[in-house]
Design brief:
By secondary structure, this protein is mainly alpha-helical. It folds into 2 domains: 8-198, no CATH class; 199-230. Helix content is 49%, strand content 8%. The chain has helices spanning 12-16, 39-47, 49-54, 60-70, 86-97, 101-109, 116-129, 132-139, 162-171, 186-191, 205-230, and strands at 77-78, 83-84, 148-153, 156-161, 174-175, 178-179. The protein has a two-stranded antiparallel ribbon. A two-stranded antiparallel sheet has the order 3-4. A hairpin with a 4-residue loop joins strand 1 and strand 2 (83-84). Helix 4 packs antiparallel against helix 5, helix 5 (86-97) crosses helix 7 and helix 6 (101-109) packs antiparallel against helix 7. The longest helix is centred in the C-terminal third of the chain and has 26 residues, at 205-230. It is found in: Nucleus.
């Protein structure tokens, strides 16, 4: 006797993208994870060869292996055909898996060149799913990460850096073919006592400006003194 149609296993991404709505819980910032990526992009992802071959049935640990093996650039879609990148396919898989903060912390803290794209994937996912105050506190420490990244888009491949990518996530409206939800500005969160003022690793900006101004004045004084000495008359 055959099973009722409702009992057949459905591919996890199709279940996730059920047009009647997602049964998964909302992300911490209140968004539906099934609709964070735009519909056209989602459809390209689930129809892509990489997603079908490499992303079916993954768990949080498998994500690490797939990033190390297959991700060597960041980006959303590439080429004339707007093919979804492995980076974006794995970001979509993370939206399905909904990893905990503890798992994300592990992703973020893997060091070395081998895992730099895992960190890039994690900061992208945090930007998509976490509340604005948590986005700032999680991502800002990586503004000091100067490791090189390759970025691929419709126009080809270019060089960027981890700190630039993080800054894009904090300041731009669209990154990696994805429209980012609108966060409140940092100064607003500071005024609401939700964030402490950010201290630059370079120091207080006012002190830096004063030091620059003092150094410039000293240079000008030294230059004027040298000019006065050279313009004096020589004895006969």
């Amino acid at each position: 006797m055959s099973k009722p149609q409702s009992e057949f296993h459905r591919a996890d991404e199709r279940r996730f993208l059920d047009e009647r709505g997602s049964s998964s819980s909302l992300t911490p910032n209140g968004l539906n994870p099934a609709t964070i990526l735009e519909k056209a992009v989602r459809e390209r992802i689930v129809d892509s060869y990489f997603y079908k071959e490499q992303c079916f049935g993954l768990n949080e640990a498998d994500i690490v292996d797939r990033v190390v093996e297959h991700v060597d650039f960041i980006g959303g879609v590439s080429g004339i055909a707007q093919k979804p990148t492995p980076f974006l396919c794995l970001a979509f898989k993370l939206l399905q898996l909904a990893p905990s903060d503890a798992v994300l912390e592990e992703y973020l803290n893997f060091g070395g060149e081998k895992f730099k794209y895992l960190r890039a994937l994690a900061v992208f996912y945090v930007r998509l799913t976490r509340q604005d105050k948590d986005v700032y506190t999680t991502l800002e420490p990586f503004l000091e990460d100067r490791r090189k990244l390759r970025r691929k888009g419709r126009a080809g491949t270019s060089l960027t850096y981890m700190d630039e990518f993080v800054d894009d996530l904090l300041s731009k409206d669209r990154v990696c073919a994805t429209s980012l939800w609108k966060m409140r500005k940092r100064d607003i969160l500071e005024d609401l006592d939700m964030l402490e003022p950010r201290v630059s690793p370079l120091g207080n900006i006012e002190d830096l400006l004063e030091e620059e101004d003092e150094a410039r004045k000293n240079e000008e004084a030294a230059a004027n003194g040298h000019k006065d000495d050279s313009s004096g008359s020589f004895p006969l």
